[in-house]
């Protein structure tokens, strides 16, 4: 990691060296599967305006099986970083490695869930979940249906298999989008603020469900948010971004066991320390 990144294993290390002790989860440190080295992204407008530096000198590592959260204020470049990992945006400078090789474009090893639900209105719940499996062309019809039905149960969609998206709430629609992506069993699950448009109660339920799923699977999650509470309820590691042009302020392991209680004093202490850290770098940014 670059000189700007500070990390303290076994707890939340602040820039002044203090550590919030937390309990180990027992999560084994897997091999590094994603590595960014001095990553840079510049957008060049077509209207002749000056280039926009979205990401500047970002370095971090992601290990197999970790739930990594990219946390930062709106517009800081964290979603752009996610899309570069997904292969949807090209790297302007530095290196972005996937299993030691440069990211060359999208691939079936990386599934993505967006903030918008991106469902097919003419397909039922089950049909939407089956879609990704159909596109893979690896399974027969019976296997596709069986896999889709498994994730219907797993995501709390039982009883709604034959419903259409227009009849469902935002939370249910996002469950479908998550189930559709998980059903293809990608190595990497990329999630771009998937709960941002949901009400607080629905968001809390989905955070709890996603935390449970993450604990049951060996999928590597990369999750973008600007919500501190959301980050510490989900993450094994939080990579904190500065305001644009983004840099990594700190990479923080969160080793609290799952499931995590929002009112756990240890969680509240991590929240306090994390907000203090963020405040020193983004005191004038309302996104936090």
UniProtKB/TrEMBL annotation:
Gene3D superfamilies according to UniProt: P-loop containing nucleotide triphosphate hydrolases
Key words of the record: ATP-binding, Nucleotide-binding, Transport
Transmembrane residue ranges: none
Keyword Membrane: no
InterPro entries hit by this protein: AAA+_ATPase, ABC_transporter-like_ATP-bd, ABC_transporter-like_CS, ABC_transporter_ATP-bind, P-loop_NTPase
PANTHER family, A to Z: ALIPHATIC SULFONATES IMPORT ATP-BINDING PROTEIN SSUB, TAURINE IMPORT ATP-BINDING PROTEIN-RELATED
Protein name in UniProt: Putative ABC transporter ATP-binding protein
